[in-house]
Write a structure and sequence with these properties.
Bound molecules: glutamic acid, magnesium ion
Largest sheet: 9 strands, mixed
Structural class: alpha+beta
Low-confidence stretches: 623-636
Mean pLDDT: 94
Number of strands: 17
Strand content: 5-15%
Distance between the termini: 25 Å
Helix content: 25-40%
């Protein structure tokens, strides 16, 4: 989730007092790193995925499923190999926001050889098994996006109680113990977001109105110890949540790529940006939050509201007096600008930025597109700062830059090379919801990486105005968006990166099916484009077979022939005997759902509407030839 500085966290007033210091020095650090590395080139494609998981404890007799607050303990064991042999660990494990979450990445990045695509799934499987080997007999590991009954009564193991009058979130629903305890970053972020905002965060998501859902749907929050502030913040016909955990306690699937050079990184950042809402809709997997069915299918807005540290002034609710800017979005949000020259005509949303910081970036030779991007990120204040990290050497350290960068949780992240490393310019693709099986997650990861190859090799251009990408983000959230929504999409995609002028006619509204599978003469479809690429490159039969299965999954999900995870979950709940058609997901239903999820993950339950008969037909190992040539493996 970001920078894990060691040390003692400062209070919010102390952090606030140092905000300008962090911003100023963060910019200097970026400038010095940029100038040192702007000409760096020749980096090979390297890439990796991040999968986030939840540990759940089942009580099969009572039919309850609870979040097992064990990740600190598990991580200690999971990281043992890495501690001993930092370069030889098969997987790398990191904490995440929840005390029940772990995040795993491959021990080494994948390289540019096509055969690596055939190893992703087995790597994910091995990762999962590493955790599973450490679980108690009644615990399971799930790659689910939202825990259905997070915040409902007793939902943790050990059982804990919310403390609305104290603690970092002051939530009516979320006990303090839910936040990862072994690193202060997570509770500090929670407290500082609340204190900066001046009140608790307020997440309001539209409830799914079912036959017996009370109308208007209004909950009595006083019985949970509300002092009136939550009731006032809760909207009718919405599910109200009041803590960072509701958002950052969700799991996702992320992909990071190293580009050949700075220009390529900027290009990839831009080209993948319009694909974010589309992939969000396709991977939608979280229709239940706080024990209620929602009218939305994905997590993004929940997290955005859960991290919204803006004050009333910044949200435009009261005139600016103390604060400097009205800021349209939360710091968890979709990106606001393109950063490559090709993107310039499509930057149609005014970027809020600090003119002094922009000026400083510009005067040091950074062009306006990149300077604008960075100055825009830096309208945010640090929301977690460690006393040991305040004084830094801007010529070598990057912590102040990373501090702000890593708490701008956007759909894409543009990543300068980290200080003191041999890593190149990178971009991170962050919208996808995590799927139940390693097969699906590998399919999505491989598809996105292949798309980057297609975009670069064929010089494709998917840019549309940023305002349209924002509009697509809204549409992506809707229930069954894959089937029912249309998305702004550029079908005139062969324009090769030279600035295009006639923006109006270049894009139109397409369904997800048309985007992935094609629409007559207008657009060939992303899947056929990837297939075309795969046919053109040299690829072994085994990898081709696996990719065929992955592309089938994407194709059929997009066409509606297979369901999204979100719609599978909805159907499961709707068909459950204990569900009373009132939008509430009872504990027994959630239990059966999570047991079913686990069976799907383990391949013990066939779900033809979710997966068809698709699955890997190979054991997904690196071809023996590569394994016999360690230099080849090492190089990537
Ligand atoms: N769990 C967060 C999400 O679902 C992302 C945290 C991170 O940046 O790693 O988007
Ligand atoms: Mg993470």
């Amino acid at each position: 989730m970001g920078l894990l500085s060691e040390g003692s966290p400062l209070s919010w007033p102390e952090t606030k007092a140092l905000a300008a210091h962090v911003q100023r020095h963060g910019i200097e650090q970026f400038i010095s790193q940029f100038n040192r590395l702007k000409e760096r080139r020749g980096d090979s494609l390297k890439w990796g995925d991040e999968v986030e998981y939840m540990v759940v404890r089942l009580d099969r007799r009572a039919r309850t499923a609870r979040l097992a607050l064990r990740s600190a303990e598990l991580l200690d064991q999971l990281q043992a190999t890495e501690r001993r042999h930092p370069d030889a660990a098969p997987s790398l494990w990191r904490p995440e926001y929840g005390a029940y979450m772990v995040e795993g990445t491959p021990g080494q990045p994948y390289g540019s050889l096509i055969s690596f695509f055939n190893t992703v799934e087995s790597n994910m499987r091995a990762r999962r098994q590493e955790v599973e080997a450490l679980l108690q007999p009644d615990e399971i590991l799930l790659s689910i996006t939202s825990f259905p009954r997070l915040g409902c009564g007793t939902f943790t193991e050990p059982p804990c109680r919310p403390t609305p009058g104290s603690g970092s979130s002051r939530s009516l629903f979320i006990p303090e113990e839910v936040i990862f305890p072994a690193h202060p970053r997570f509770a500090t972020l929670t407290r500082n977001i609340r204190e900066r905002r001046g009140k608790k965060v307020a997440i309001n998501m539209p409830v799914l109105v079912d036959e017996r859902t009370p109308r208007p749907f209004v909950e009595d929050l006083a019985r949970l110890g509300d002092d009136g502030s939550s009731q006032a913040a809760a909207l009718p016909d919405h599910v109200y949540m009041d803590a960072m955990a509701f958002g950052m306690g969700c799991c996702c699937l992320q992909i990071t790529f190293q580009a050949e050079n700075l220009l390529e990184a900027r290009r990839l950042y831009d080209q993948l940006n319009p694909l974010c809402p589309i992939l969000l809709a396709l991977t939608a997997a979280s229709p239940i939050h706080r024990g209620m069915l929602l009218a939305t299918d994905c997590r993004w807005d929940v997290i955005a509201m859960s991290c919204d540290c803006r004050t009333d002034e910044e949200r435009g609710l009261t005139p600016l007096r103390q604060d400097r800017f009205v800021i349209p979005k939360s710091r968890y949000g979709s990106t606001d600008s393109y950063i490559s020259e090709c993107g310039r005509p499509y930057n149609d949303v005014e970027l809020v930025m600090d003119p002094a910081l922009f000026g400083r970036l510009a005067e040091s030779g950074i062009d306006d597109l990149l300077a604008g991007h960075v100055a825009h990120l830096f309208i945010r204040e640090p929301i977690s700062l460690f006393s040991e990290k305040v004084q830094q050497d801007d010529a070598v350290d990057m912590d102040h830059f990373e501090n702000i960068q890593s708490t701008n949780w956007q759909t894409m992240r543009f990543k300068p090379p980290p200080a003191g490393s041999n890593i190149g310019w990178r971009v991170e693709f962050r919208p996808c919801e995590v799927q139940l099986t390693d097969f699906e997650n590998a399919a999505i990861v491989c598809f996105v990486v292949l798309l980057t190859r297609v975009i670069l090799s064929y010089k494709l251009n998917f840019l549309i105005p940023i305002s349209k990408v924002d509009e697509n983000m809204r549409r992506a959230h809707k229930k069954d968006a894959v089937l029912t929504e249309k998305f702004w999409f550029r079908s005139d995609f062969l324009c090769d990166g030279s600035p295009c002028v006639d923006a109006e006619t270049e894009y139109s509204e397409l369904t997800v099916n048309e985007i992935f599978n094609g629409k007559g003469d207008e657009f060939p479809g992303l899947v056929p484009l990837v297939t075309h690429y795969l046919n053109a490159v040299n690829i072994d039969a085994d990898t081709r077979c696996t990719m065929g299965q992955y592309l089938q999954l994407i194709r059929r999900r997009a066409s509606g022939e297979l369901q999204t995870t979100a719609s599978w979950i909805r159907r499961f709940v709707a068909g459950h005997a204990d569900y009373a058609r009132d939008s509430v997901v009872p504990e027994s239903t959630a239990f059966d759902l999570l047991v079913a999820c686990q069976e799907v993950t383990a391949g013990r339950r066939a779900e033809p509407t979710l997966l068809g008969r698709l699955g890997s037909r190979t054991d997904n190992h690196l071809p023996a030839a590569i394994l016999r040539t360690p230099s080849l493996y090492k190089q990537v």
